């Protein structure tokens, strides 16, 4: 009746997660299924990760390192770092899910000096949220922090959603296609 205690150190030159990730057709949960993963409450596991290259969906992460602890039905991520999108990414936060029907997340994501055109072509959400950035070139730093309660379909319960973010750049240029056409015509 005591938690299972363990330590895991994962070190790899290349870690390809793509075969284990569901594609969009498989990811859609039926009303009876949940897309959430329950976290056991009888586990006390500390994990450290060091990987040269990690592949996940369309993302390629380099020099990945970080620590994760699973305890009390919660996953604690502490400064998981990687080089990606021409810059650096850091994630920290928690995912608490005693069942597969609801999860509380509290995450902070920091992307430092990423290449904006590479981010727009790789991260579909950026292109949808900030379409004018498709015409941008340069490097940006992006920080986002938020909390939410997720339902079985991974959608946040809107009353629980609290988020803030900041985007900054010292070297970004925006040149929309229509402006290029006007320039050529003039």
What are the defining features of this structure?
186 residues; eight-stranded mixed beta sheet; 4 helices; 14% helix; 55% strand
Protein topology:
Layout: E1 4-16, H1 24-27, E2 43-56, E3 59-71, E4 74-84, E5 87-96, E6 103-115, H2 116-122, H3 124-129, E7 136-150, E8 162-174, H4 177-185
Parallel strand pairs: 1-2
Antiparallel strand pairs: 2-3, 3-4, 4-5, 5-6, 6-7, 7-8
Straight-line distance between termini: 78 Å
The H/E string reads EHEEEEEHHEEH
Largest sheet: 8 strands, mixed
Summed up, the helix count is 4
The coarse overall form would be: globular
**Mean pLDDT over all positions:** 86
Strand % is: over 45%
Q: How much helix, percentage-wise, in residues?
A: 10-25%
How would you characterize the overall build of this protein?
By secondary structure, this protein is mainly beta. Helix content is 14%, strand content 55%. It is built from four helices and eight strands. The chain has helices at residues 24-27, 116-122, 124-129, 177-185; strands at 4-16, 43-56, 59-71, 74-84, 87-96, 103-115, 136-150, 162-174. The protein has an eight-stranded mixed β-sheet. Strand 2 (43-56) and strand 3 form a beta hairpin. It is globular, with a radius of gyration of 19 Å. The model has no long low-confidence stretch (mean pLDDT 86).
Question: What's the short version?
Answer:
With 186 residues, this protein is mainly beta.
């Amino acid at each position: 009746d005591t938690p299972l205690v363990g330590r895991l150190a994962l070190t790899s030159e290349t870690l390809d997660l793509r075969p284990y990730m569901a594609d969009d057709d498989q990811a859609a949960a039926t009303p009876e299924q949940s897309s959430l993963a329950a976290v056991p409450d009888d586990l006390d596991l500390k994990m450290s990760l060091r990987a040269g290259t990690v592949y996940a969906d369309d993302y390629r992460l380099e020099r990945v390192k970080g620590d994760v602890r699973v305890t009390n039905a919660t996953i604690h991520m502490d400064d998981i770092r990687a080089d990606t999108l021409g810059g650096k990414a850091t994630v920290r936060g928690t995912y608490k899910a005693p069942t597969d029907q609801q999860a509380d997340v509290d995450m902070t994501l920091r992307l430092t000096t990423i290449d904006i055109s590479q981010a727009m072509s790789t991260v579909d959400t950026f292109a949808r949220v900030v379409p004018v950035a498709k015409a941008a070139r340069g490097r940006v730093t992006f920080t986002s922090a938020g909390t939410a309660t997720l339902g079985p379909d991974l959608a946040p319960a809107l009353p629980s959603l609290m988020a803030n973010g900041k985007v900054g750049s010292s070297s970004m240029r925006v040149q929309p296609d229509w402006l290029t056409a006007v320039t050529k015509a003039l």
